[in-house]
Amino acid sequence: xxxxxxxxxxxxxxxxxxxxxxxxxxxxxxxxxxxxxxxxxxxxxxxxxxxxxxxxxxxxxxxxxxxxxxxxxxxxxxxxxxxxxxxxxxxxxxxxxxxxxxxxxxxxxxxxxxxxxxxxxxxxxxxxxxxxxxxxxxxxxxxxxxxxxxxxxxxxxxxxxxxxxxxxxxxxxxxxxxxxxxxxxxxxxxxxxxxxxxxxxxxxxxxxxxxxxxxxxxxxxxxxxxxxxxxxxxxxxxxxxxxxxxxxx
Length: 249
Fold this sequence. Notes:
The protein is mainly alpha-helical. It folds into two domains: 3-84, Arc Repressor Mutant, subunit A, CATH 1.10.10; 90-248, GntR ligand-binding domain-like (Four Helix Bundle (Hemerythrin (Met), subunit A), Up-down Bundle). 64% of the residues lie in helices and 3% in strands. It has helices at 3-14, 21-34, 47-54, 58-70, 102-126, 129-148, 153-165, 171-179, 186-189, 205-218, 221-248; strands at residues 74-77, 81-84. Strands 1-2 form a two-stranded antiparallel sheet. Helix 5 (102-126) packs antiparallel against helix 11. The longest helix is centred in the last third of the chain and has 28 residues, at 221-248. The N and C termini lie far apart (56 Å).
């Protein structure tokens, strides 16, 4: 652990829970983007610049950027930096999902399957070393959420986004950002409290993700596609069972 990492850990201990170093930086950049300080297409300060400005480690800056990326506010371009994205409201196309319509979630999963099975295969053959590290970090974060009993929704999305980015085709992550507003917290859909997760849904989540991640690391496109198909098919089957149970009742 470096001196700076130790300082970051110490600072996190004294900051209020709602204002960690990561959230402080991501919120500051978010405000600048929404206020127009950074216009669509503008390059954000480099990782080293943000590290110096906020006196934090590179890992903190990367986590902050990852939050903005998963929210569709920025995109990372290999060898060029991080750039602000336009917020054109096109994602509203997928905002009609409601807790009463399990069928709408099934529709979205079927559409995601068509995209993400191919995404996993391409990621296995095109991923860079840095993108493998990002995929592993995201996979570990899902595991951390599961171990803590915390919601996995955001971490789950970040993993799928990291895989899409490893395709080296920006249309794959663009698609995921487009449909993200339509991905409803699963516990709310199933009648739970907001932010909670049903225990049965995540029972095999880490195991399914691990198969995808391992195949991508090994560069096995066929296995990556098959593992992603099995993962999304498992989700479809669980929602179809839920739909049938609701219809029967």
